[in-house]
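Illustration 12: YgiQ family radical SAM protein.
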Amino acid sequence: MSSPTNLFANVPKRSSRAPAAPFLPMSRAEMDKLGWDSCDVILVTGDAYIDHPSFGMALIGRLLEAQGYRVGIISQPDWHSAEPFRALGKPNLYFGITAGNMDSMVNRYTADKKIRSEDAYTANGEPDKRPDRALTVYAQRAREAYPDVPVVIGSIEASLRRIAHFDYWSDKVRRSVLPDSKADILLFGNAERALVALTHRLAAGENIKDIRDLRGTAFMTPLGWLPDEDWTVQASAGVDVPGRVDPIPNPYQEIPQDRSCATGTDAPEVKPIKIMSREERLAAAKEKSRKTVCRLPAYDVVKDDPVMYAHASRVLHLESNPGNARALVQAHGERDVWINPPPLPLAMDEMDNVYDLPYARAPHPSYGNARIPAWEMIRFSINIMRGCFGGCTFCSITEHEGRIIQSRSEPSILREIEHIRDKTKGFTGTISDLGGPTANMYRLACKDKKIEESCRRLSCVFPTICSNLGTDHSKLISLYRKARAIPGVKKILISSGLRYDLAVRSPEYVKELVTHHVGGLLKIAPEHTEEGTLSKMMKPGIGAYDAFKELFDKYSKEAGKKQYLIPYFIAAHPGCTDEDMLNLALWLKKNNFQLDQVQTFTPTPMAMATTMYHTRKNPLHKVSEDSEVVETAKNGKVRKLHKAFLRYYDPENWPILRDALKRMGRTDLIGNGERHLVPPPRGAEEAQPKVEGRRRVPQPVKGRGDRAVVTTERAPASTPFMAPPSKVKPSILSTIKSKPRAGRK
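Figure caption equivalent — predicted structure in token form:
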């Protein structure tokens, strides 16, 4: 597979290229001011254009600008005709199509499939500024506007829909987005490498139909196409069950020959067996793998066969490490969708250069004083890394950004803090976040590069933290200390979600965090309390949360601060039963938590939990007809019940909870005492019992806008009601145990 040695290897000298535009043009008038008669590349996006590296269209646009290309942006066009796609004229090279920072269906709909009242990526939060499945619609309109212009699709919507996938909103398995969009090529993951190489090759006159060797790309081919005759095809069929295994011959064993039948010219040719060193064997295997494509079950098979769908999902996730992943191919009717191996991660200097580009760090002037919620969220925050090796099954960060952490250098991050201080309007001295997909994976990596390249684990931290994973937080501690020492910076908060099972490996980090970087509230995501559900999430047990809370409380007390954890939980996750949700509700009450706004599991394309939801099979293990069955809350009433357990204190939920408790044989939890979960019915006089020592905690600030790749229903942040530990009265709930399920130990 082809990949440039360095992302900026072919950047023209600054003196030989045009100066950076104040903003990438969104109109002909802006192009005229820049002296442009045409654009080389036109990016179409479903988001408002904000010239900031947390927004994909700005990052890609500025990157291509640095490569010497003229880039225009069409933001949130009216998709009902092709005319808005002609606003900037015909691009010289291609249309780059993106749905935006979020999958358009996740952006537009709640977990209950209701239209959201606000779009965080639109001026004034106005809804309905993008269509359903925006990527496909935009690509079709761009093709209609200029039929002979290549169409390149990318973004998280392209990444997560690159193969046949279950679509929650239509409740069926849909084709890859490639044949539906009629795009020439799809770029998935963090696509800077593929995009830069593709653009240079198109500018050199190469036909886009001939560019088939770039990592991180997918495209349509004739059925059975192979790059050359050296390639081999390995079928993934067999439902992930090993076939017959031939014994390995012993090269030292003497094999007797039947000389009565094998004499003279009829004797078999005896060939010496070459004994290869381990390094030679590994090199030969790697070369063979590099030219092997794994054929997934066809779309026509997986759309009707849940077992084969789960099998295909498992194989795709196993082939996700850029160090050893093979190409994948999946038949869609009379053509194949060919998917090259994932892109190679960016090196630190490449990451620095991407984030050091001349962003205006503001919304395009055409929006005036309009409020753009996503911009307000990330305005004073900084992305210090990419990727996540957690592999949580309900989240798509790993599928999109990969498991290998890509970090920026300290100087680059500190420079951005100074840029915010000096150039961002409204800065008062507080940096709202130094983070990324997680707050504390900065510069964490496998201890051995060779092990990393050969690893096929789905997570580095589940079921336990890998012994080869470095968990030293000292570099992050150093960054925190240098960042808060910058003149003009009064406070640096950490708002990204924290991986607490890693944090407890470094008590010094927890102390640094709690003492200096928590503004009273810290987000943390146990997601659940029950082992069965957590195992389907690939999340650590609740004991890891308890260990972190102990350190958090200890260091908060030492710092003389009253600070609280904000826990997130998911309702109706695959593998979660009514009994599990009851146990979680009892845990919440025992710990005096009342969650105001809660999240319900949303099955998003390509996530492993979505596979569990659709197929009732567990792709974390080998899949077959008789393999583990994952019970899943699909019925609307069951999903509503699971959500109600998280809000057990809400009078509106008491009727459904009473009915459930009666059905489960737990009427002992209906009453007015502290040991009860809900009160008995009292007609109009029904009221929530008062509990001393419980108080509201202020609404936390919503997370970074560029965290929208997280695909659980977490749009509104949770608001807990908590009692300070010193005031929590002993509760009889500590002696209450839910009845175990049959067969559960």
